[in-house]
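Record format v2
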Amino acid sequence: MSELYINQGIELRNSQREIHHFRLRLAVSSGLVVFMFFVLFLRFFYLQVIQHEHYSTLAEANRISIAPIVPNRGIIVDRHGVVLAHNYSAYTLEITPSKIDDMDELIDRLAGVVEITPRDRRRFKKLLEESKSFESLPIRNRLSDEEIARFAANRYRFPGVDINARLFRQYPQGELFSHVVGHIGRINQRELEQLETDGNDTNYRGTEYIGKVGLEQSYEKYLHGTTGVAEVEVDAGGRAVRTLSRTPPVSGNNIVLNLDAGLQETVYRAFGDFRGALVAIDPTNGGVLAFVSKPGFDPNLFVDGIDPQNWKDLNESIDRPMVNRALAGTYPPGSTFKPFMALAALTYGKRRPEQAIHDPGFYNFGNHVFRDDKVGGHGGVDMYKSIVVSCDTYYYMLANDLGIDNIANFMQLFGFGSRSGIDLTGESAGILPSQAWKRRRFRTPEQQKWYAGETISIGIGQGYNSYTPLQLAQAIATLANDGVMYRPHVVNFIEDIVTRKRSMVEPQPLRSIELKPEHLKTVKDALIGVNVEGTGARAFAGASYVSAGKTGTAQVIAIKQGEKYVASRVAERHRDHALFVAYAPADAPKIAVAVLVENAGFGAAAAAPIVRKVLDYYLLGKKATPVTTEELNANTTAR
Amino acid sequence: MPIPRLVRRLSATLTAHIDAQLLIAMLLLMGVSLLAIFSGSNQSVGRVSSQLVNITVALAVMYLFAYVSPNFLLRIALPLYLSGVVLLICVALFGDIVNGARRWLHVGVTRIQPSEIMKIAVPLMLAWYFDRYEATLKLKNYLIATALLMLPVALIVRQPDLGTAVLIVAAGGYVLFLAGLSWRIIIGLAVAGCASLPLLWSAMHDYQRQRILTLIDPTQDPLGSGYHTIQSTIAVGSGGFFGKGWLQGTQTHLDFIPERTTDFIFAVFAEEFGLLGNMVLLFLFLLVIGRGMVITANAPTLFTRLFGGALTLTFFTYAFVNMGMVSGILPVVGVPLPLVSYGGTSLVTICLGMGILMSIQTHKKLVQS
């Protein structure tokens, strides 16, 4: 058609040359167009065919996120099913630090939508310092419905902030079980490394908490459960859009304890304001019935990171509430050591039961005078009387006759000086003195030498002797059980939440000590005598069951704690510790108890009444009241 | 007159200035647009119907301009250009700042972006200018034409709106090229251009430099400026040969692609329809461009030839720059995919250009007489 115009010469200025020139340019342009589109095609071909695999993988990785599903942690109940640790679900407001530029500014803005207290801020700061920046951290827990609604409406203003539903650990009994059930806390760097070393880190993906102390720690692998996996499709904001596949988590196993919450509470109340520890064991199987270290603390404070103020208060308290006295505190056993000494004497043939000594009220050894508590002495003392009145002179002499290594060898059988193997971590071994121990303990030959004089006070449970209340409880339980020793265990059985299968925590005896029945009878009769006519008689007056017991007093040598000098307090803390070991019923023991009352001051007076209340509760179901001053004063003479 | 003849006559009159070939190719591209917008908007019927309204308006504009004689365009070229420049100056003085760039001007109740007008006004002005001095084209004329081009471009670069500036330079450049700018000068300019790159670099804003650096290595800033390129490239690549299927694009539906219905709509299309779909799309664009070329080649006057050629090549440039950007061979500039991206402004501008092409094709006789 165009030729038509030219031929007709309609456009005069359009010479054929010009048109030709223009069309050439147009052709060049067209060529350019085709070439450029070909470049695009090559690019598409490269991306969509050659590199297709690569980009497919990237797209899948983009959209699919493997999200761990954290299992529900097993719950912990006492022997009667009273809940000691459980989980509840609540909403938290969480911040992902890596997505935030100005944290303070963000929190200020957030505070306009939900309430954020200074305590929340401090706690969050602490979490922030301890955590990896890509995980989201709670700034507020337990949001109210109203707060959730208010945040949801404002969510667009807060990228990097989300509401999450989470399970929280709760300890409904508060401080009552703080030292035995323990608590969980956020996983720290060291624990993370440990998990990696053990190859458990994959199972802990998504888990933020781990048992820190107590049963929560020692039964961690049973309580935690198996983490599930969800393949979720996420959008560019990282929010889950839908679930593609799901391997459900397996909840952690429930743990049923031997502990009796009522008994535990009884112990707690019986202690009143005293500090100390009590361990009650079922002698027939080693099950721990009560396990108290006073003062305790509220384990709930630790679950989501304790705030610095509370931490400071607990950590710097003069009462040292964080120390598990029953498990890790070691004390001289005092006179509670005597029944075992008596048994050793009989076993080694160093004394006969009826063989009496004369107690003038002191015992001379070398240049040193070892005094009896009773001025003027107890007069003629046989084995029975030595235990009932707690005669020191009898045992000074006996210790000298037995010699340190015989004592050590015998005491070792009852678990003195070695860890009981209870299902809690952090146990102290205590000190069972012997020549070998002294060689290990000290450096210079001078120090390493055992002096015969050192043996004397060992006989009355002083000197180097130092044991945990738990060891005392295990020893008295073993004695009650005629020398058959069980490993103490807090947990009765572990219940698989799916199959309901129960795995018992060993009712197997640890060892059986070879003791002559008549020897046992002698000592046990004397222990009954203590509660009938001896040092424990007042505390056990009118009891409807027959019990066996032994009082003890441990001298406080020095102030070990680096506490401030406060005259009234320090004086109080110089006072002796009161101890009592007991079991009942005497003929077929169902419970063996060891109690230590720190700085109780009035000899064993404070300790025996506590045990009376414990036995009353356990055997008769009586509720306890705190030890009264009258009860204390009534027993001031007892040693 | 029998009714059928009347109808036929009427319909002939109504369609007299419509180029069927061009229209069909355009409608096919608009069909692609609706499919991709539906998918990219997460199946929002509202988005699609609002694009349908845009299409209707744009087609009406096209229809209108198809009926307007090129002579009318010749008459308005100068006033349009001058008012455009004045508006750009106003923008520089009183414009609104949006996203750090001063591009918008308040006119009564609405805001306008004068740089959009210049996409048409600049090539129109240059075509008018060359047409006017057709008989005596000297180097001087090319220099003046270049100045006419660079004045608005400088104002737009200052806003800053590099993408639009580049497109206007391209449009004006096409006119200069088609008007017969000597090859020697073209090559000389190309060399000079390369030589002045460092100068250009230093004149750039940081975000503009970042875009270019990101193009070279998008992974250096995967969550920042490289994000768009990386995600759109993944979308295109993961589409494969056959695509993931309509509405099945994971990159699309999970928000990984930014601006999914506007500037990055090609990523949606390429992910869901694959290389096969891309070839169809390239073919449709080639149909439009090819038809534009044919119309231009047969245009009766220098003005219509230059303007028609510029319109056609600008259309190509839009398509190429957009697809190049989405597939990661060009920096991210705000250029929509012509006829496909969601949005009224660009659609109306493009259809206006198409209407002018149709007008050029169908007004030869009028020019004759």
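The two ends of chain A are 131 Å apart (CA to CA).
The longest strand of chain A covers residues 83-95.
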